[in-house]
Amino acid sequence: MMSETAALPILDLSMADSLHQKQQLLGQLHDALFNVGFLYIKNHGIPQEKIKALTSLLPALFDQTNEAKASLSKMNSPHFLGYSGFAEEVTLGQKDLREQFDFATELPIVYDPKGSTSDTSEGKDFSKLYYRLRGPNQWPYEKNVPGFRKAFLEYHDELQALSYRFVHLIEEAFDIPVGTFDAFFQRLTSASNAAYKHHVPPQHRIKLVKYPALPSGLARENQGVGAHKDSSGWLTFLHQVGEEEGLEVLDASGSWIRAPPIEGTFVVNFGNAFEAATEGAVKATIHRVITQGPRLKPRYSIPFFQGLPLDLTVNEVRQCIPDHVRALRPVSERPNSLVSSFLDPRWDSLGESQLRKWIRSHENIAIKWYGNEVVSYYLQ
Ligand SMILES: O=C(O)CCC(=O)C(=O)O
Ligand SMILES: [Fe+2]
């Protein structure tokens, strides 16, 4: 059932600049965190030119020849970075009618596929399998999509900064010291906890997604991406490019609410790890994309998944979240509705739950890079 009346909150981040308005903003954020789990932000401070510089290249990125796109296939990447063709991915047993490029914070290779570890510069033991998830992007040839790499890197840096700023507002809305979570992101400020210094820095992931135009004859609803919770990070910042609709959010009463593109905004939602850390007080809200014809133009979107260190454990995260935050979980909440792979005692760290997720969604790539034994272990 579709609810037409419910609207998602739109928070004006410029209110953070005025002492008086900031309290109001934090009140709205508190409500959005604990009662809605999905929101828009506006006046976020990212220059429109920086956003446009990337979005204007999306048609050229996807219009590369099939051969050029295939040469960037995710199959080449133990980090599951690269291109997935139309309807190659499956959610809820059904094909997602979209194609996408997965990019991430650009990193050097931190492991040697032959088994030994190639980079211990961060003083870490990279023998843990999940460190193989970290690694470099597959960039299109500059001549195919001129300016792409620069535009992407600038967009990445802007989104990273926004995401860190937003986490500070969440800390204020939680009434915990600003900077409490900084150490997760290797931002060691005075308020952050030195005990977390040993973590490797996170790698944020950014997907560039295209849902195709649908010919006018095809008016029935199709699955752009099936109903899911985000599992790749702490927070998600989604840019819906253009005016094409499709995103829907499941509200507490079980109705799907439309989340149309709103000029100048990002949609913000919370990942599984955030839900697990707060023991369900803040929900990783379920959402999907319906791709409904007739639609003359394709729909593009760019989700930014704020990464966390792969060696972070759920217990370490929980220690940063005070009881008064967890206590805001609705009393009616059934305990088994909180099960997430990050809470499963078999997977001690975020890296393991991430590896499991990638193996389950891309079995063929996983077999190539991790082997049958590892794949069978994580599929059980
Ligand atoms: O395309 C969208 O608007 C949302 C995509 C999404 O939810 C995802 O990729 O996790
Ligand atoms: Fe999502």
UniProtKB/TrEMBL annotation:
<dbReference type="InterPro" id="IPR044861">
    <property type="entry name" value="IPNS-like_FE2OG_OXY"/>
</dbReference>
<keyword id="KW-0408">Iron</keyword>
<dbReference type="Pfam" id="PF03171">
    <property type="entry name" value="2OG-FeII_Oxy"/>
</dbReference>
<dbReference type="InterPro" id="IPR026992">
    <property type="entry name" value="DIOX_N"/>
</dbReference>
<dbReference type="GO" id="GO:0016491">
    <property type="term" value="F:oxidoreductase activity"/>
</dbReference>
<comment type="similarity">
    <text>Belongs to the iron/ascorbate-dependent oxidoreductase family.</text>
</comment>
<dbReference type="InterPro" id="IPR050231">
    <property type="entry name" value="Iron_ascorbate_oxido_reductase"/>
</dbReference>
<dbReference type="GO" id="GO:0046872">
    <property type="term" value="F:metal ion binding"/>
</dbReference>
<dbReference type="Pfam" id="PF14226">
    <property type="entry name" value="DIOX_N"/>
</dbReference>
<protein>
    <submittedName>
        <fullName>Clavaminate synthase-like protein</fullName>
    </submittedName>
</protein>
<dbReference type="InterPro" id="IPR027443">
    <property type="entry name" value="IPNS-like_sf"/>
</dbReference>
<keyword id="KW-0479">Metal-binding</keyword>
<dbReference type="InterPro" id="IPR005123">
    <property type="entry name" value="Oxoglu/Fe-dep_dioxygenase_dom"/>
</dbReference>
<dbReference type="GO" id="GO:0044283">
    <property type="term" value="P:small molecule biosynthetic process"/>
</dbReference>
<keyword id="KW-0560">Oxidoreductase</keyword>
<feature type="domain" description="Fe2OG dioxygenase">
    <location>
        <begin position="202"/>
        <end position="308"/>
    </location>
</feature>
